[in-house]
Amino acid sequence: MKPFLQEVAEDLIARFGKDLQHCAIIFNNKRPAAYLQKYLADEIKKPFFSPSFFTIQEFFAAATNYKIADFYLQFFVLHKIYNKLLFEEKLETISSHKFFPLAKIILSDFNQIDSDLVDAEKLYRDLEDISVINKDFDYLSQEQYEFLSQFWTSYSEGKHKKQQELFIKMWRRMPKLYKLFNEELKAQEYITNGYAYRLLAEGDINQQAFLKSFDKGKIVFVGFNALSSAEAKIFTQLQDSGSALFYFDVDRYYLDDPLQEAGLFLRKNIHQLGLKNVFPELSSLMTKEAHTVNVFKVQGQSAQAKILNNILAEEDDAAAVGSTVIVLADESLLIPTLQTIPTHRNGKAVDLNVTMGFALATSSIFGLIDLWATSQLEILQSNRLSYKNVEAFITHPLAGLSQKMRDKIQTALLVENVVEIDHERLLRQSGLFQVFYQKVDKPESVIVNLLNVLDYVLTRLSNAKALKKIDAELFVKTIHELNRLHDTFGKHIGNEEIPFIIYLVQKSLQSITVPLAGDPLNGVQVMGLLETRNLNFDKVIILGFNEGIIPKSSIGNSFIPDSIRRVYGLPVLENLDAISSYMVYRLLQRSVNINFVYNSLTDESTSGEVSRILKQLEFESNFKFNYNELNLSVKTQPVKEIKIKKEGNEFIQKTLQKYLDKTKVLSPSALTQYISNPIDFFFNYIALIKEPKEVSAVVEANEIGSILHKVMEYFYQELRSGEITAERIKERRIQVPALIQKAFNAVMFNHPDKIIEYKGMQKVILAIVNEYVSIILDQDLKQTPFNIISLEQKVEAEISFPLHGKEASVKIFGYIDRVDVKDGITKIIDYKTGSDKLTFKDIPELFNSDGKHINKALIQTLLYTYTYEQFAGKTCVEPNLYIVKTMSQDGIWFKSGRQNLAGDYLEEIKPEFLNELRKKLTELFEAPYFVVSAVPDNYKYSIYKTLFGK
User: Fold this and answer.
1) Tally of domains within the chain
2) SS3 for 217?
3) Pseudo-torsion of CA 316, 317, 322, 327, nearest 10°?
């Protein structure tokens, strides 16, 4: 079917001929201008002087004698006046950052009031009761009375709530705010976009000097639908003076039917306002032409884009693909769409044009800007930076650090476990560090410092010839926007808070986009629904055709309630429905192949329901509908037994041999890990896959244990030279808080004497450790008097076991927390801060990897006992376990049933323990596989679960 703009081009040429150059062509958006120029060129077939092209905003702005103020200038002026009014009312003024969200709503309302020529004084007037309504609004219809009465009744009945009173006060100051705001802007030779509409509508637009340049031609308005009151008045004036022509893209299908919401505004334009359509003889393409509609119901947001391959695969040649548009009703689908559209079709490259552009907010450049902003906020707050922030910077691709330098810095910070880094320390580094971490000392420096960072990065990338085309365009547009903001902010930000200016800069930069490569007239076009206005395509694919997206479910934030909006004819939710319906119907009326794709899953972003517009088309149109449902089959992978084969694996055999050769030694924790879950031993001690060390302000459970061990070592260091008595413990106890801090610094920062200010969770950890120390010392008081033989002593011993019919041995080593002697009995003391237990079933079950009764603490303590006996040449050494969480109730002795593991019973158990240990060692070196325990609880806290399929 012939596109609408081609029909417009043919009529313009026939109507104006050579005088076409004197015409002004006005669109709602920039996009259609390129298409109309193409159709004019195709029709004229020779060089010609082009007419002037404008968007409606550009045209009206050019027709006024004022400059259009951007949002930030409007904000600063509004804030200044708002605070002035608060001061006059003897109320507390409001800061910029608190006023910002209010300002966005107020400015939007002001713009709408001006665009629709509403009397701001009347709209914001205080309507306290119905008598005021009757007096001042005698021109209202009964329905309008009801709207207004209903709104104010809620404020007139009963006592006002504080929120309502504040709202009413704000409403009362709005007329004055509106008036002073516009006066102040005009004094600076600026106006808002909406006020430009008002000025032109309330004056005689035909007298504007700018319009006289088109006297030899016409002012041509193409493809307009919903008009504001100002636009309607201006259009009417221009038509009455014979200066304007109107080309409405309309179909009788929805124009002549008063029930069709798609024709709501066009009926107003043509029938009520009397605007004359250049094409009066309308046909009904919606009913006369054949339309095939394919509906695709898919499950999941990204799945909507993934179906594009199937839809585009129907095309046989590049020419057909060239008349295809993919409309993203939900613009978050851009990236999945770009990832899915095929690059070739039938051996030919598929051209792609994305009008929506690539957002700076999704680029690494904005990532660096965002990181800079976060860093500056931290510097301003404490002159320190969090490790995570610094790590993010040194690993950022635009930081330009070599891998060697990154590793060097990260290793140094990890060793120190520095959670917060001094700002001065970073400034001492050269290159980008110095520029990036330069402190913003005043509001005016925010943009200057950020420009310095971007200039440094851009220069380095250019010199290294590593600058990508898309990044170059983003850099240019970002720097241009920052320079514009610098000029706009000017004298307005001298007294503002620096964090707020940083916030404004971030918000402004987030909206930057750059066009992706492509031809706007050929290839597959990807665009938003608003961009499709005036354009036609044979094949239309709309993604995200969900209720709540088309049409939108909200008109946006406003301080003007719905009932008041209806009274004054301001846009309401039904207007959005009509606009959305028109844009969809207009796009469909000249299309042959129509495809709607919607997400059937309900989540926080979509309703899971197809748009009501589709339901409407199904009910009333004669389109041919084909329904497709994408059901993604869920395949379950059968549970696979993961095991690591030892035999034939040279690396495993060599590593195991090192234990047999005594070049590697086994720790009690390594043995207990093998017993609990053999495959964990492989990953940890054979493959040497370790959990990455991280700098964190949060103290892990194992670190609390390390701090406690260190405190107890410090505590008894000076007392061990003599007998430990109750009096000596009580005297030493006074120093516990200082010892805890020393231990904390030693474990967390590798610096026992480091002086720091403890905060938040650190204070909590100190208090926990203090409580644990108190519990241990209370237990030790009960044991006094006793002697300490050693603290944190390293011990080694060999243990033999049968291997392949021969005898082999390994070396076991460990650090024993404490060795005491009391009443002639040597005791191994092991501190535990976890949920260990003193009970055990029997010795064989301790070593059963597929059993539920493994007691790691008992195995480790008995290993320490055996090792110490071999190391020190002693016998009858007794294991004691200090479980701080349960020690006061359960004691310190292991138990089997009711029998304590001590004395004769302990001596009976030791040979059995050694026998089972030897069997386990034989299994470690002789079993064909490293396997997973059959009991999930045995690897509940394993960091390797994903590696062995659990």
Assistant:
1) 5
2) coil
3) 20
3-state secondary structure of 883: strand
- 551 upstream amide cis, omega within 30 of 0: yes
Domain assignment of residue 101, given as a range = 67-198
Q: What global pTM score does this model have?
A: 0.77
The answer to whether position 639 is within a domain reads: no
C-alpha torsion sign, points 326, 330, 333, 338: positive
Domain check: are 745 and 861 in the same one? yes
Residue 318, pLDDT > 70, answer no
d(CA 680, CA 686): 9
669 lies in some domain: yes
Amino acid found at 128 = E
Q: Which residue has the tokens 């190391």?
A: 871
- Judge if 573 and 427 occupy the same domain: no
Same domain, 751 and 875: yes
| Residue 871 neighbours by CB under 8 Å, 6+ apart | 795, 796, 797
Residue 271: name the closest of 249, 288, 256, 287 by CA: 256
Question: Model confidence over 67-104: pLDDT tens digits?
Answer: 999 999 999 999 999 999 999 999 899 999 999 999 99
Residue 740's closest CA among 760, 768, 780?
A: 768
Q: In a 3-state reduction of DSSP, which class is residue 26?
A: strand
41 burial level (CB within 10 Å; 0-12, 13-18, 19+): middle
**Region for residue 144 given its phi and psi (left: phi exceeds 0; alpha: psi -120 to 50; beta: otherwise):** alpha
Residue spans of beta strands (DSSP E) within 248-378: 292-298, 324-328, 344-345, 348-349, 352-354, 358-359
- 130 phi and psi, to 5 degrees? -70, -25
Q: Is the pLDDT of residue 130 over 50?
A: no
**How far is Cα 74 from Cα 184, in angstroms, rounded to an integer?**
10
Whether residues 428 and 551 fall in one domain: no
For tokens 């004395």, the residue is 903
- Kindly indicate the confidence band of residue 129, based on its pLDDT and cuts at 50, 70 and 90: very low
Distance (Å, whole) CA 546 – CA 544: 5
Spell out the SS3 assignment of 766-811: HHHHHHHHHHHHHHHHHHCCEEEEEEEEEEEEEEEEEECCEEEEEE
**333: CB partners within 8 A, 6+ apart:** 301, 302, 304, 305, 543, 544
Q: Which two tokens stand for residue 710?
A: 């260190």
Name which of 780, 788, 787, 791 is nearest 887 in CA terms. 780
Three-state secondary structure call for residue 640: coil
- How far apart are the C-alpha atoms of 904 and 896, rounded to whole Å? 14
